[in-house]
Amino acid sequence: MLMGMAKPLAKLLSMLTPQRRWAQFNLATMFIVDAELYFACAWLASQVNRAKKQSDAVTAIEAMGGAVRYGQFDKARTMAFPMRSLRR
Predict the structure, then answer these.
(1) How far apart are CA 1 and CA 10, in angstroms?
(2) By residue range, what is the domain housing residue 60?
């Protein structure tokens, strides 16, 4: 009885095992990827912290009756000074 079940079991196991080999990575590659991910998350956290501080400052200013305006970046005016000084 057990001998008759060995072939179907072996066939089932061969069907369940993957036919291709999974990608293998070096340990150094994993450390490099981890370091890049760490720095990306640290940068994102610093940006979120900066935005939170700005939001808290705006809330405090508005609570005291002040108004907050955000400046627009004017590329033409910003670039005019260095270009004018280089043309001399």
Answers:
(1) 15
(2) 25-71
